[in-house]
Amino acid sequence: MPHLDEAFLDSAESLEALDSRGSLRALATAGAQVRRAIVAAREAGIDRVAGGDRPRSVLVASLGGSSVVCDVLDVLAEPGSPVPLTTRREAPLPGWIGPLDLVIAVSLSGRAQGPLALAAEAVRRGASLLTVGAPDSPLADICARGRGVHVDVASPAPTSRAALWSMLTPVLLAADGLGLIDCSEAVLERVADLLDERAEECRPSSESFVNPAKILAVGLAETVPVVLGDGALTGVAAGRAAAMLARTARMPATHGALPDAASQVVACFDGPFSGSGGAAPDGGHDLFADPFLDGPPTPQLGLLMLRDHPAAPGQLGSPEHLAALEAGRLAEAVAESARDAGVRVWEVEALGGHPIERLASLMSLTDYAATYLALGLGLDPAVSRHVTDLRDRTT
Fold first, then answer.
1. What pLDDT is stored for residue 278 in this prediction?
2. What does the alpha-carbon distance between residue 17 and residue 26 come to, in Å, rounded to a whole number?
């Protein structure tokens, strides 16, 4: 099992020394990213996207650390968007995209080949274009040639994962302006306030026994993590959490969303990583186990449940409220089954009222937890020698 040094997590100086590119500092600027992105979007003329008219369809292109932009817009638009919305990571652009459609391409560096190729093909076909990325980049140049709208992301960030809100905010504003989702500037200001509160709560100087992100990091370090959302919205947060655990903390993690993932997650409780896999019957470590005679303890499964909060009282009896109740019952059943099997369980409930606020509250906490987990394991959150090696081998 990996060893996480809790004392190290409580030393703000040690964390800063290992965090060479300031990943924690970048996460703390999430609220400021939202506010700066609102201003940048206004200055870029976000209201001119698609000529101010609703397009026939919208395609969103992003990959890597920015791919969650696709997932967020997709889940927010799904319930009521009047036009189809699709997502792509790589080329080719679907054949039906033409002058009546809008393509949104997102890349922090403005150099990611997938969004670049899709944006270039959109210009060739005469589609409307919105791009979000670095100023004076190839993506910005393509957008200028296609007379689209480019929103600059000028804020420095160690990775695209730490610049999520700089990239996501302009896309949400554009979608709101076109009537695809309900996500006004006022909502995004509340998101910024929530992210500021999370930054204060999870600051490096906050000790590990009260800091929720450090508490979660310490627990996850001892497990093989599975991240499970209790619905479509929390499923997006689960995907982001698993990506952050893998890419930032180098901890392989699976993820899913209820109800579809219930059976495959519960089936794992019979396997070698459940409480029966070398752990005590109550799911803890066997104090009497001899590592020389019995061998090292088997890594234990850990279930991180991301929960949406119940529907507001005004929605009682509505189909949405009944669906939320059913999702809650299924989530409770999965959590109880996990505990009975000796699996460690953490439950995190969303904060806020608007869907993007609830999503922000979950993603911000797991972003911090993954970063603290990396640092507690002695890893730089933004630097992986194997990722660098992969880039060297493929360029």
1. 43
2. 15
